[in-house]
Amino acid sequence: MLPVVIVGGGLAGLNCARVLHKNNVPFLLFEAGHECGGRVTTEFVDNYRLDVGFQVLHTAYPEAKHALHFPSLHLQKFYPGAQIFKNGKWNLLADPWRKPLSAPATLAARIGTLKDRMLLAHLSSDVSRGSIESLFARQDISTRRRLEEFGFSSDFIESFFKPFYRGVFLDPDLNTSRRMFDFMFRMFGAGEVAIPAKGMMMIPLQLRLALPRHALIFDTPVVQVHPDQVRLADGRVVGARAVVVAVDGPSASSLLGLPAMKTRSTTTLHFATNKPPLSRAIIALDGEGTGPVNHLAVPSLASPEYAPKACHLIACNCIEPAAQVPDEALLGQVLAQMTRWFGKEVQTWHLLRIHRVRHALPSQPPGWLEPADRPALLPSQVFVAGDYRATASIDGALRSGRLAAEAVMLSGFRRNLPQARPQS
Ligand SMILES: Cc1cc2nc3c(=O)[nH]c(=O)nc-3n(C[C@H](O)[C@H](O)[C@H](O)COP(=O)(O)OP(=O)(O)OC[C@H]3O[C@@H](n4cnc5c(N)ncnc54)[C@H](O)[C@@H]3O)c2cc1C
């Protein structure tokens, strides 16, 4: 029996493979790189684990709960809140329900007003009501307008929401769809923010290890796609029962002739230090909007395995326009800003790597997410998956992969694929 061919071994392709494999549908997955994981990857440098671009897993992600086995990832949690640097001082905004002892500090923070704190609770209950589909069915506007219409003060939007959601969407101006914002706000409220103890790469690795090795073919870009075959870069043609293109948005545009997609970039500077600049695993934000660092974390405070013994790893994350600044100049700007934040100790930080991720996330303006899932089968009879088809996140990528596998199987039933009922 011809296999289903999956193009791309990111989370979308891997989850598509997982669902097909579980349903005894033979598949072959072609990945251009030499490892699975796509944008979720971890690099080892001097015994530090550097996630290529700081990212986190939300334990409330509905699809991830289903596709992944959380206990084996040994998830290490971040503090529920953020600390914000503004007017030369640090301010703590913590979730008062999960960290009641932090309430006095949160109330005293010089960010926004008392009304803003109360609105946060209303917003949380607003986005938690009903199904996720019902959230997406609401009228779509920009995140900024959503927050303004909800009544938040401009100080709170600028000093808290803007840097916080810049870190999530990599969007400098809160122009991202309110559907994406509502989804993420719901995730923050419903669960924990975590990283696997041994790095984000453990997520794709877990999926990969559950798949038959012979079906995963690395270092093999696909250059042409048809409904019943693909052409590899070395000229070989591989026949397929169905083809699922599970690549990133820009690659999908060129492989499938889809319209060009705007993407968001990010730059992460990882430093090694003996003394962590924060006292807990919390996200630190630029509440002044000066940049270039928008958000900073010390992953080794969440998981000591990110750094050698007695050492710590700092991830300084910049969004656009840092991508245009050459390494040396960017490093100088980052160190100057970090010295304002943490003082002279910054001079002891040792730069490990600068990672620039050009197509980190698709841009997701209003209208980007549709109330219902987009069909995984294109009019060209090729199946598609990838985060650009859903919420641009780990969860969206996993979801799109499952939906593509289910669509293949449903169409395959008409073409005598195994008659198992799709089970994800
Ligand atoms: C810096 C950064 C921070 C992020 N932060 C978060 C976060 O905190 N939380 C969160 O939920 N999400 C976050 N994300 C988003 C999340 O990582 C992505 O949405 C998700 O990993 C995308 O998975 P994917 O499978 O759709 O695409 P990809 O991971 O891009 O996988 C596509 C794969 O296709 C392969 N490919 C491309 N072209 C071809 C070809 N022609 N032939 C064969 N293979 C090909 C690529 O090599 C790649 O492996 C972040 C992303 C980045 C980059």
Kindly list the characteristics that best describe this protein.
globular; alpha/beta; binds flavin-adenine dinucleotide; single chain; 5-stranded parallel sheet; 20 strands; 14 helices; 2 domains; FAD/NAD(P)-binding domain; Polyamine Oxidase, Chain A, domain 2; 424 residues
Describe the protein's architecture and organization.
Helix content is 33%, strand content 23%. It is built from 14 helices and 20 strands. The strands form 5 sheets. It has a 7-stranded mixed beta sheet, with helices on both faces. The protein has a 5-stranded parallel beta sheet with strand order 10-2-1-14-20, with helices on one face. Strand 16 and strand 17 (293-297) form a beta hairpin. The chain is globular, with a radius of gyration of 22 Å. It starts with a strand and ends in a 10-residue tail after the last helix. The mean pLDDT is 94. The structure holds flavin-adenine dinucleotide. Flavin-adenine dinucleotide binds at residues 7-13, 30-33, 38-40, 53, 55-56, 221-222, 246-248, 251, 255, 266, 357, 360-361, 386-387, 392-395, 397.
Brief overview, please?
With about 425 residues, the protein is α/β, with parallel strands linked by helices. It has 14 helices and 20 strands.
- Average pLDDT confidence is 94
CATH topology of the largest domain: Polyamine Oxidase, Chain A, domain 2
Major beta sheet summary: 7 strands, mixed
Specify Rg, calculated over alpha carbons.
Answer: 22 Å
Report strand %.
Answer: 15-25%
Query: Which bin fits the share of residues in helices?
Result: 25-40%
In the predicted model, the low-confidence regions spanning at least 5 consecutive residues are: none
CATH class of the largest domain: Alpha Beta
Total strand count, please? 20
Ligand types: flavin-adenine dinucleotide
Q: From the coordinates shown, what is the CATH architecture of the largest domain?
A: Alpha-Beta Complex
